Amino acid sequence: MDNITNNFITDFIKEDLGENLNSLITRFPPEPNGHLHIGHAKSIILNGELAKHFGGKFNMRFDDTNPSKESVEFVNSILEDVKWLGYDYGDRLFYASNYFETFYECALNLINKGLAFVCDLTGEQVHEYRGTFTEPGKNSPFRERSIEENLKLFKEMKEGIYKDGEKTLRAKIDMAHPNIVMRDPVIYRIAHIHHHNTSDNWCIYPMYDYAHPLEDAIENITHSLCSLEFENNRPLYNWFIEHAWIGESKPRQIEFGKLSISKSILGKRHLNKLVSEKKVQGFADPRLLTLKGLRSRGYTPEIIKTFVNEVGISKADGTVEIELLEHHARDILKKETKSLMAVLDPLKVVITNYEGEEELELENSSEAELGSRKVLFTKEIYIEASDFMENPPKKFFRLAPGVEVRLKGAYAIVCEEIIKDSSGKITELRCTYDPQTKSGSGFNARKIKGVLHWVSEKYAVKKTVNLIDYLLNEDGSLNENSIVKKEALIEKEITAEDERVQFMRHGYFYKNEEEELNLIVSLKSSFK
């Protein structure tokens, strides 16, 4: 994981901690309001690997301060995904909601310092008073309330005396500050709503920008690593640590570039919309780059970690080609999966001069050391429909009338007759074979260019195969044919233990919970 543990963040850590690198504490702090995707995996892997590299600690923390969008379902889903990736947080599982009392005390600290006030402006009015990037904001008419009055009103907010939106607690900073986030931000709002962890104990909830730095400080996080979108909020992060925090720890926020991937949709809001509009079949849909989707498609933690390490950590946002992810999938899967023959669009072939059946030996993989397997050859077989053309163009090196091709691991055959139904559709080919051409016999009297995979009609296993394409077209529109089901015929050597297999000339496939086979990635790639 060299690119993860060697970058500008590593330099900051070494500079800050010196000889005490094992005092490093990182964290992954998602809000439990959705399912994780591969962008979150980058953060998990970065924080987890840095802690492991320096002998520090890695915290798993839920930033659950907005109960209207959060649920136990999302909590459990996120925990499952993090463990699947291979990051065991052990007893270091935390919830921001467990710190609500401390957040409240820190807010009282701000009020007592004259640095926070209770405001009666509505949300729309707060926005109007904020000003623009070129014009300063205006002070709230409630900004100069006394410390005593603010303490009283804030206590009443906590006790549930006021309705939702009736009052907020705001930090008192500078309404003319060039950074708009520093213009008296709201730090508490009223919300009479049930919380998944604290039940109905609270009706005031801290805002993210206020709670997040305090969470880091409470947990003694040394380095708070977040995506670049929070760079503008770093002055506010530091302000709350300096003025609101009642302890001694001083976490440092460092930003890095967010991961975006071509031909894909990331972001909880966009993913939620896809699911709610039934454009996909839930968050585990194998077309999605959610961690659940990747898992159901057949990607492994090793593939994702290798990909994230290859992408590395930068100071700028950028889009990575999805072909890089696919490249690493092929590179890893080819070393550990066996090859089988599978026909996705079957066309029957009858070998008219062959009788009986015989056992052939085929190599399990050209890459992995998985030995060989026995395949039964019979008179009636199936090949891919696309491997035959009645009137082929030049350089079509597959089966055609009078053209000789080799069946993988078996014999050379020639098409002698085409059988069609009443509509003119080809339903069967009748061929002859040359018994002198058996694979492994040393036969080389004729140069045979085409080699076709096949399955025996008698011994093939029928399976549903899902051919999965990119969710987005090149123009950014939704690909309506991003998943296509096929009833495939597979040689019987596929077993219950074969979670992942390579189908010759097609790609790598994964057996999902429904016993269907999802295409993980095709064999061919133009990625360089």
pLDDT averaged over residues: 94
Question: Strand order across the biggest sheet?
Answer: 12-25-26-27-23-24-13
Tell me the strand percentage band.
15-25%
Largest sheet: 7 strands, mixed
Q: Distance between the terminal alpha carbons, to the nearest Å?
A: 21 Å
Helix content, binned percent: 25-40%
Q: Helix segment count? A: 13
Give me the secondary-structure category: alpha/beta
How many runs of DSSP E, i.e. beta strands?
A: 27
Question: What's the Cα radius of gyration?
Answer: 31 Å
Structure write-up:
The chain has 528 residues and is α/β, with parallel strands linked by helices. The protein is 26% helix and 25% strand. The strands form seven sheets. The protein has a seven-stranded mixed β-sheet with strand order 12-25-26-27-23-24-13. Helix 12 crosses helix 13 (322-333). The longest helix is centred in the first third of the chain and has 17 residues, at 38-54.
Secondary structure blueprint with pairings:
Elements: H1 2-5, H2 8-17, E1 25-28, H3 38-54, E2 57-62, H4 72-85, E3 93-95, H5 100-112, E4 116-119, H6 123-129, H7 147-158, E5 168-171, E6 186-190, E7 204-206, H8 208-218, E8 223-227, H9 234-243, E9 252-256, E10 259-261, H10 268-276, H11 291-297, H12 301-311, E11 318-320, H13 322-333, E12 339-340, E13 342-343, E14 346-351, E15 357-363, E16 372-378, E17 380-384, E18 404-407, E19 412-420, E20 426-434, E21 451-452, E22 455-456, E23 461-468, E24 483-490, E25 500-503, E26 507-511, E27 517-522
Parallel strand pairs: 1-2, 2-3, 8-9, 10-11, 12-25, 14-20, 18-21, 23-27
Antiparallel strand pairs: 4-5, 5-6, 6-7, 13-24, 14-17, 15-16, 17-22, 18-19, 19-20, 23-24, 25-26, 26-27
